[in-house]
Design brief:
By secondary structure, the protein is an all-alpha fold. The protein folds into 2 domains: about 60 residues; about 140 residues, Cathepsin B, Chain A (Alpha-Beta Complex). The protein is built from 9 helices and no strands. InterPro entries: Papain-like_cys_pep_sf, Pept_cys_AS, Peptidase_C1A, Peptidase_C1A_C. Keywords: Coiled coil, Hydrolase, Protease, Signal, Thiol protease.
Length: about 260
């Protein structure tokens, strides 16, 4: 009986000790698993950062390879040109063709044949003298200050509207013999001509049709802040993603249409 009690007591102590040791071991294993997960996560983050850095370097490399204007090209242009000098403008120096395409908002005519027939029917083509040189400012000196105006389209593919507005104000001045000198709002065309796509591009023929059917109000360049609707975007912007300005609730039909 005595020996049986000793053996029973020994078994109980051994079981308790084994269970406690097992718990300690499991307790130690759990933190190790957590630490391993942390190590894996840290490793993945380091690899991601490294990949991002490599991607950034690759982008810089590709951007340099894709530059549309190079110093060699400028030098070649200037070799054969005596009247003006080409140079790389700092605003466009590091831009890729894709980025520069954002400025090229003029869209090709959808129906060229119809457009040509319409223009031929409506215009009286007169025989002109052959010009070796032609400067509209010298041909119509009374409109020199109007013709000289060059608007900065900023970071918006609005050249279809800006150039059309420039032609409109030039033609108004020339047709009136210099009596009417106004700045046409390219912003009005940009935001209100709904057949085109604003800063995403448009058709000059739509701009002229809008002028003929709706009329266009006065405006100016961004820096001048004159007229009914000045241009809304500043020159030399940091961004290359301006959205089309919202249509104003005010409309002014103030222009005579010179056919």
């Amino acid at each position: 009986m005595y020996y049986s009690s000793i053996i029973f007591f020994f078994l109980i102590c051994f079981t308790i000790n084994f269970t406690y040791s097992d718990l300690i071991e499991k307790k130690n294993i759990l933190p190790k698993k957590i630490n391993l997960e942390n190590i894996i996560e840290k490793k993945e983050n380091e690899e991601k950062i490294k990949n991002d850095e490599n991607l950034s370097e690759n982008n810089k490399f590709l951007k340099n390879k894709l530059k549309i204007i190079t110093a060699a090209q400028v030098e070649e242009i200037n070799k054969s040109n005596k009247k003006w000098k080409a140079k790389i403008h700092s605003r466009f120096a590091d831009k890729t063709p894709e980025e520069l395409n954002h400025f090229l908002g003029v869209k090709k005519p959808i129906n060229k044949e119809k457009l040509l027939k319409r223009n031929k029917r409506n215009n009286n083509i007169k025989e002109l003298n052959e010009y070796k040189e032609f400067d509209s400012r010298n041909e119509w000196p009374e409109c020199k200050n109007v013709i000289n105006i060059i608007q900065d389209q900023s970071a918006c593919g609005s050249c279809w509207a800006v150039s059309s507005a420039s032609v409109m104000q030039d033609r108004i001045c020339i047709s009136s013999g210099g009596e009417i000198k106004v700045n046409i709002s390219s912003e009005d065309i940009l935001s209100c001509e709904k057949q085109s796509f604003g800063c995403e591009g448009g058709w000059p023929e739509n701009a002229f049709n809008f002028w003929k059917t709706k009329g266009v109000c006065t405006g100016s360049d961004y820096l001048d802040h004159e007229g009914c609707k000045p241009y809304p975007f500043p020159p030399n912007p940091d961004t290359y993603l301006y959205n089309t300005p919202r249509q104003s609730k005010y409309f002014f039909l103030i222009y005579l249409i010179f056919n």
